[in-house]
Specification:
Mean pLDDT: 88
Distance between the termini: 58 Å
Largest sheet: 5 strands, mixed
Shape: flat
Number of helices: 21
Number of strands: 17
Radius of gyration: 30 Å
Strand content: 15-25%
Low-confidence stretches: 533-558
């Protein structure tokens, strides 16, 4: 370990080390307190630590996606070699590259000759085209052709045509090549339901899914996955949503190192949702296992898995927010609520079926049972309890310092008072109406949320949802808004009144995007009457308005 190697003047630097240990190794090497630093290849890009001698011990790394060792990009090798040289100390420097004999001439050529920089746009052109269609920059296939002619890719087509599989370098040949490329991309985007064409196939427009992909910077393949598995109308639980999240294209390149398939198989045996060993070499399977370990607080086999978990959680919230938009746009209430629960799980690091009390520091199963024996089963009950009561319950099991930490976390929990007001208790069928929701935080907001297991600081946010629940427990999303506020906010949710005349009961959900166990739910009862005919005179309209105001036909709740 680092403590052992430092005694011999040798430092270690890799992503699996804690941040403080990495910083210590960097400072010791930069100040010449240690003479050797053993590091991973990423050090060349992320940290500026020049040295007199750089030794690159091999030019290959294990690629979990292909299941074999592949070469580092030549740019990475050049970047690592570039760390050789300390202008303030040396007039010369050395770099040694250990390479397989058959590749020696290849590396000598590219290390001593100018290296051409080629475009990688083609690999990501689907997402670029989709984003430009969503923003309105591209409205036809011709616009897409014109868009490509302004790119570096277009310039390199003529200089190095074989690299881009171009056989005919004449202008008609290049035009046909680009036309075929655009045609394929548009067809792929149409298959993913991101783009629509008019009947004459001359105009392109973005669909709701295409705009969601552009807004959240998602790969079009992820949107295709959502279209296939989220828009079917099937009732999906948290486990199903977790599987969809982990199958997203954003995790295609998640690292699976050599022999990690065996570690994944062992980790799978500890997880609540066991996965077959035949899939343990998959990046998506590893993501699934890391999230399960995050929710279950399982020990990870190596330090690199901790860094991998941070990488997974960094992207998870963005993907889940997009999933909410997809299900809410389709009107699937139950599925939308399950995704919100999954967001809460990712932030707090517990299963939705666990007690919310376990999100607080030092509250394990035994202390949870002590709280429940005193009638404290949920977070709102704990927040309302006096500190003296909590101290008498937990004091025998926690030190003074731990109690201070515990109360600091409790003080961060939001106490939200919700008031709602419908525009009228009697609404005309088919008309437009709105629900005003006022949210007031009764305790002062103190910085970021309490989420010790989440890799970065996060601000508090809320989902305000109006839904209609059917007899099966499913239902429709009537309206949804995201809300973030400091002390108080008021938001309006617009909706169309149902055509069915009579009494209706809808449900208002106020759900946290950060905490488990602080969601609120209210019933909204209102009456729908037949649509009234428009008045012929402004005098009649004013009389109706005054009558409505005098009768105070408003429904409100708290």
């Amino acid at each position: 370990n680092l403590k052992h190697t430092l005694r011999f003047g040798i430092g270690l630097h890799h992503a699996g080390l804690p941040e403080n240990d990495r910083r210590i190794a960097e400072e010791l090497f930069a100040n010449n307190k240690i003479m050797i630093l053993v590091s991973t290849a990423t050090l060349a890009w992320g940290v500026n630590l020049p040295a007199h001698l750089v030794v690159i011990k091999g030019t290959e790394y294990f690629d979990g996606k292909t299941g074999k060792y592949i070469d580092y990009p030549i740019t990475d090798v050049l970047q690592m070699m570039g760390r050789a040289g300390r202008p303030q100390f040396d007039t010369s420097a050395k770099a040694c590259v250990f390479v397989h004999e058959p590749k020696k001439d290849f590396y000598k050529r590219f290390l001593y000759e100018p290296f051409p920089v080629e475009s990688a746009l083609v690999e990501h052109l689907h997402n670029h085209i989709n984003a430009e269609i969503a923003s309105g920059t591209i409205a036809s296939k011709q616009d897409a052709m014109d868009y490509i002619t302004w790119t570096y890719f277009y310039r390199r087509l003529f200089v190095n045509p074989s690299y881009y599989m171009l056989n005919d370098t004449s202008y008609p040949g290049v035009s046909r090549h680009l036309s075929d490329l655009i045609e394929k991309i548009i067809n792929d985007l149409k298959s993913a339901n991101c783009v629509e064409e008019n009947d004459e196939e001359t105009k392109l427009s973005s669909t709701t899914l295409g705009k969601i992909a552009s807004y959240y910077y998602l790969d079009y393949k992820t949107i295709m996955l959502f279209n296939e598995r989220l828009k079917t109308g099937e009732r999906l639980d948290v486990e199903d949503m977790l599987a969809i999240l982990c199958d997203s294209a954003e995790y295609d390149e998640h690292p699976v190192r050599h022999n990690e398939d065996k570690m994944n198989a062992e980790l799978s045996k500890l997880c609540p949702i066991e996965i077959s060993e035949e899939y343990c070499d998959s990046a998506h399977t590893k993501v699934h296992l890391l999230l399960q370990a995050h929710f279950s607080h399982l020990p990870l086999p190596i330090a690199d898995y901790q860094t991998d978990t941070k990488s997974v959680l960094d992207q998870a919230i963005r993907i889940l927010q997009a999933m909410i938009d997809v299900t809410a746009d389709s009107g699937f209430l139950y599925n939308t609520l399950q995704i919100i629960h999954l967001i809460q799980m990712c932030v707090q690091g517990i299963w939705i079926t666990d007690s919310p009390l376990k999100t607080l520091p030092f509250i394990d199963n035994s202390k949870k049972r002590h709280l429940e024996s005193k009638g404290i089963n949920y977070l709102p009950q704990l927040i309302a309890a006096p500190q003296s009561t909590l101290s008498s319950i937990l004091g025998p099991y926690l030190s003074h310092r731990q109690m201070d930490h515990f109360f600091h976390a409790v003080d961060k929990l939001p106490i939200i008072n919700v008031e709602y007001e419908l525009s009228s208790s009697v609404l005309s069928a088919g008309s437009d109406a709105f629900l005003t929701v006022t949210m007031t935080r009764t305790n002062p907001k103190s910085g970021h949320i309490y989420a010790p297991l989440f890799p970065k600081e996060k601000t508090e946010g809320w989902f305000v949802i109006v839904g209609e629940i059917d007899d099966k427990g499913d239902g429709d999303v009537i309206a949804l808004k995201r809300v973030s506020f400091q002390n108080q906010t008021s938001t309006k949710l617009l909706f169309q009144v149902p055509d069915d005349v009579g009494m209706h009961t809808w449900v208002l959900f106020v759900m946290s995007d950060s905490y488990v166990g602080l969601d609120q739910q209210y019933s909204i009862d209102f009456s729908v009457c037949e649509e009234k005919e428009n008045s012929t005179t402004s005098e009649e309209e004013s009389e109706e308005e005054s009558e409505n105001e005098s009768e105070s036909e408003k429904i409100w709740g708290r």
